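Renewal narrative, Specific Aim 1. Our central claim is that a sequence can be written position by position from structural information alone. The example that follows is taken directly from our test logs and has not been curated for this report. It begins with the structure tokens describing the chain, in the order in which they were read.
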């Protein structure tokens, strides 16, 4: 058809009115046309690619979902805690299982079927459980077995007695623990049974802290500690006055509290009256902090003090309290600090 031809030379020629000079012949510059065969081919290819993308998108999404939801079998790399990578992943897997188990109910089993055969369960709850703050408490490999026992904890909504009104009930959120056995193999991981409510795990370890001696509030070291904590938590005073040169300690900004008071101060050794430069002292300070809304909390700060020019300065805000070395703790036990009454 003439309207779709690709040869401009065959297009109908416009007639020149009589009496007008014919225009000079010029060399035509090739122009692209929206109806050329090349653009038709390009448009066809783009249409095919778009159609393929639309067709493949659900499949790709499904495969991506499968890759995410499928248990991952990682290489057995031993972590610093003595657990392999798959054993650590079993904790997250168990947490997801407990989450679906708690939230499943008769009309909405959720994703519980990803872990167990829902049809094999006799009944599901008529109403779902309300829970929050779900976390992994412990991960314990079973010796000589592929099964890892995971304990997951969560705050579960329950009803408890109202202390203000006899016979009435109020909403409470006790911490509950659920034990889940997970089999971990190269092919992945699966639960071996349903979650079991258990008692909270007990700690079998004991720590002997190094702060065996009380520190009187009138001692210069105690005064340094309280002045430092006041500037650190309330923003009152110049913190740098109480900090050793070179120690990178900055106050909490903005200051969350308006007052700090001493409850109990303890040190790891006798405090010299006139300390020599470089003398170190470890302090465990139990203090009460008061906020602008008159709320109070009790906190424990572990500090290292260093003497300079016969005065004490805070050289470190310790990340954890100091312990007595295990080799000497049996011979010279130290009591854990307790607030003075």
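The sequence written for that structure reads:
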């Amino acid at each position: 058809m003439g309207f779709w031809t690709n040869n401009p030379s065959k297009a109908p020629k416009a007639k020149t009115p009589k009496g007008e000079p014919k225009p000079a012949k010029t060399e035509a510059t090739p122009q692209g046309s929206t109806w050329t065969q090349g653009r038709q081919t390009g448009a066809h290819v783009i249409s095919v690619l778009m159609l393929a993308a639309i067709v493949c998108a659900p499949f790709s999404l499904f495969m991506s979902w499968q890759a995410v939801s499928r248990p991952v079998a990682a290489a057995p790399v031993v972590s610093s805690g003595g657990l392999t990578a798959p054993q650590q992943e079993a904790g997250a897997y168990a947490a997801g299982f407990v989450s679906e188990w708690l939230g499943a109910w008769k009309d909405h089993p959720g994703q519980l079927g990803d872990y167990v055969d829902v049809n094999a369960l006799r009944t599901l709850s008529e109403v779902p459980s309300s829970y929050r703050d779900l976390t992994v408490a412990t991960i314990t490999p079973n010796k000589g077995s592929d099964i890892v026992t995971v304990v997951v904890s969560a705050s579960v909504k329950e009803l408890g007695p109202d202390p203000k009104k006899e016979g009435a009930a109020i909403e409470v959120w006790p911490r509950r623990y659920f034990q889940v056995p997970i089999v971990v193999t190269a092919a992945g991981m699966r639960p071996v049974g349903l979650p079991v409510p258990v008692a909270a795990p007990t700690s079998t370890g004991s720590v002997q802290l190094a702060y065996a001696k009380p520190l009187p509030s009138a001692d210069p070291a105690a005064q340094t500690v309280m002045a430092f904590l006041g500037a650190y938590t309330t923003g009152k005073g110049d913190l740098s006055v109480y900090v050793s040169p070179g120690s990178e300690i900055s106050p909490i900004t903005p200051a969350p509290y308006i007052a700090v008071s001493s409850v109990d101060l303890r040190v790891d050794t006798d405090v010299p009256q006139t300390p020599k430069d470089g003398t170190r002292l470890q302090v465990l300070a139990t203090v009460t902090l008061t906020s602008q809304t008159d709320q109070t909390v009790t906190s424990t700060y572990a500090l290292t003090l260093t003497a300079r020019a016969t005065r004490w300065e805070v050289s470190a805000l310790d990340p954890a309290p100091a312990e007595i070395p295990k080799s000497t703790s049996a011979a010279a036990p130290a009591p854990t600090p307790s607030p003075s009454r």
